[in-house]
Structure formats: C-alpha cells, structure tokens
Specification:
There is one protein chain. The two termini are 35 Å apart. A hairpin with a 2-residue loop joins strand 8 (153-157) and strand 9 (160-161). 30% of the residues lie in helices and 24% in strands. The chain has 310 residues and is of the alpha+beta class. It is globular, with a radius of gyration of 20 Å. Helix 4 crosses helix 5. It comes from Acyrthosiphon pisum (Pea aphid). This is ACYPI000686 protein. Residues 109-189 form the PDZ domain. InterPro entries: GH2_GIPC (IPR055349), GIPC1-3_GH1 (IPR056814), GIPC1/2/3 (IPR017379), PDZ (IPR001478), PDZ_sf (IPR036034).
C-alpha cells in the first residue's frame, strides 16, 4: 500500500496578461540597474553587458558587445574560462559573477556501439535550447571514446536534431536506444584555447575564489520575470542535494529544475501537499514516482532542519 495517494488535479494556469503586468515594472528596473563583466573563454577584452532577464537576452547582449551572431554562443560559464559544466550559467547568476562565453567550435560525428545499458553520461542544458555533456563516468562506453569531451553540445542523435529539446528528453532518447545497437552522435565542441581551457572529465572543483560569492543572485524565472534573491545555506544545500538525486535518477543536471522542486516544497507541511503541488505544475511531465517524491520530501525536511552537510 502506498504511503500516500497523489491526487490528480487540474493545472491552474496564471493569466499571461496579469502575470506580465505584475512583473513588467520590476523586470525593467532589474535589467537596467545590473551590469555584468564578460570575456570570451578563448581570450578577448573584457566587455560589459546589461538589460537582460533571460539567457537568450544575455546571449544577444554578449553578441552585440563583441559583434558576432548570438547563434555562435554555445554556453556561458561563471567565474572560470574552463569548460567546467558545474559552473554552467543557467537559471541564475550571482550579482558579482564574471561571465565567460564559449563559442561554437568544430562539429564531429562519432559512431557508437551501445554495448551496455548505460552510456555513462550526465547531461545538462543552457536554458536556451542546447544540451551538453556535463560529466562522463569513468570506464563507461563514452569514457573509452577519446573524441567525446565534457562541454560538447549534443546536436543530433542519428539524423534527429536535439536542438530545442530539454536535457531529460535527450537523456531518455539515449537511454531508450536498445543495447547492442549502433548509433551516431553529432556533437559540436566549444572553441578551445590550448590545454589551459580543458577541464577534467569528471571534475567537481569548487568556484574560483577570486570571483563572486553567489550569495545574492539574479534569478531568471519560467514566467519571464527576473528577480534578485538571497540564497540561504539551507536552500542551497537542499537544491544541491535535489540536483544530485535528479542526476542519479535521470542522468541530468539542472539547477533550475532542482530550484523549482525546492520551491514547490518550501512552504508545505507534509508530503501529500508537496506531491499535489508537483502534480499541479509542469513538473508532472517528468513522471516522478511516489517513492521519488518521498525521497525529495526527505531532502527538503532535512535541509530545513539543518541536517544536510555540504
């Protein structure tokens, strides 16, 4: 017998006009007042970017700064020029973070024999339609292919484009390829600037101490609004742990998704209310099981009580 029964409820959608009206004034103020420093990862003068409230707008401001097309940008990292996907700019940016821009390099196609159920990949995305290899498991199928690297953009699986898909969709497609099959990955690697720009495949290194502290952040929200938030230790630990659970379950890494899950449980008193909040949101598309919901709720309550360690 399940520990609780998850209710099926109709999604409540905000009125787009009302949401837009509510956030416009605050959005404009946030965008106009904040200025961030940026550089191209392979080397460039330092630029200044401002007036953006989502990743796509940020890319356009950077492209305008350096006079190239925003389509040339693969992703941005925070506080390191290296291809360290743990520092990928996604749904938020610290107010004193330094932005490093990684542009498209050479494409490559690799034929892969799926000799094991698991390929050994953790996948993340940039919130702007591109998915990337975040981590490669040691001694896995992918680890034995020297041409595949952390930071590579997964452009196609066989002849099917992955551009515009979320990372969990790409992860599921790779997982669903039958064992024993042969398939082709088309990847695009970022421009590299010698060995100094290469991050170890499974690196979990911390933030460069010479840059931002990340305590106060500009958060890009799904409804198009941007707001400044202060991160607490308990929320940061909880979100990090939820992201770790997502990686273990789905083979994806997504700070934005983990933050969304945390916020659904932030003010809930029990697991039933939390489950209902998840089912009444876009998160229900991921099909979380009751057991996983209980596990997520355990992380939230442990974080609140200060029982989670770094």
């Amino acid at each position: 017998m399940p520990l609780f029964n998850r209710k099926t409820v109709q999604k409540i959608k905000d009125d787009p006009a009302a949401v837009q009206h509510k956030h416009n004034e605050h959005d404009d103020q946030v965008k106009q007042n904040l200025v961030f420093h940026c550089q191209q990862a392979q080397g460039s003068p330092t630029g200044l970017v401002s007036n953006f409230s989502n990743v796509r707008e940020l890319y356009q401001r950077v492209a305008d700064c350096y006079d190239f097309s925003s389509d040339e940008i693969l992703f941005c990292t925070l506080n390191t020029h290296k291809m360290d996907m743990t520092k990928l700019l996604g749904s938020q940016i610290g107010l004193d973070d330094f932005i490093f821009v990684h542009r498209k390099g050479r494409p490559k196609e690799i034929e892969i024999a799926k000799t094991n159920e698991a390929l050994g990949l953790t996948i993340t995305d940039n919130g702007s339609g591109y998915c990337f290899i975040k981590r490669i498991k040691e001694n896995s199928i992918i680890d034995n292919i020297a041409y595949i690297s952390v930071g590579d953009h997964i452009e196609k699986i066989d002849n099917e484009t992955m551009v515009g898909r979320r990372h969990y969709e790409v992860a599921k497609m790779l997982k669903d390829i039958p064992k024993g099959s042969v398939f082709t990955l088309r990847l695009i690697e970022p421009i590299k600037a010698g060995f100094s720009n290469i991050e170890p495949r499974g690196s979990k290194r911390g933030k460069n101490a010479s840059y931002g502290n990340g305590k106060e952040t500009l958060r890009f929200k799904a409804n198009g609004a941007a707001e400044i938030q202060k991160e607490t230790d308990e929320s940061q630990k909880g979100i990090d742990k939820i992201n770790q659970l997502l990686e273990n379950l789905l083979g994806i890494s997504d700070f934005e998704l983990a933050t969304q899950i945390w916020e659904k449980g932030e003010d809930k008193l029990n697991s039933m209310d939390f489950a209902e909040a998840v089912d009444n949101s876009d998160l229900d598309e991921l099909g979380f099981t009751d057991d996983f919901i209980i596990e997520l709720w355990g992380v939230i309550t442990d974080a609140r009580a200060g029982r989670l360690k770094n």
